[in-house]
Amino acid sequence: MCARHDFNNALEVTQNWISDLMWRLRWHDRERVYQALIPTLHALRDCLDRDHAVYMGARLPALLRGFYYEGWNPGRRANARNRNSFLERIHVGVQRDPAVDPEWLPA
Angle 42-18-93 (CA atoms, 0-180°, nearest 5)? Predict the structure, then answer.
């Protein structure tokens, strides 16, 4: 029962994050918000050094933490150290959707 409660709580917290982003971005499509959030988190993670990336990840809700760390190689040096490469990484992550402006996606 405890594991199910933990999972339900993690799901609820993640849904609240998505709802908050929907409100902030003034978007009405939960899937679109999710599809923009994940590459934004990955771009943020990959521009930080390992210790800061771990610090950031530890503060995310459990389900988002899993997505944040997905595909991460902590032995790699941080990349996307400048604004343009950071925004390009997000833009690629949303399949260059012209309706998504990476500068307006909060991280």
Answer: 30
> What token pair was written down for 61?
């809700």
Asked whether the whole model's pTM tops 0.90, one would answer no
CB 91 within 8 A of CB 60: no
Could you tell me if 40 and 90 are in contact, meaning their C-beta atoms sit under 8 angstroms apart? yes
Residue (of 82, 89, 79) closest to 38 by Cα position: 89
Instruction: Extract the tokens encoding 59.
Output: 């503060």
pLDDT digits (tens, 9 = 90+) for 34-62: 888 888 899 889 888 899 999 999 999 99
> What does the alpha-carbon distance between residue 97 and residue 16 come to, in Å, rounded to a whole number?
24
Dihedrals φ, ψ of 79, to 5°? -125, -170
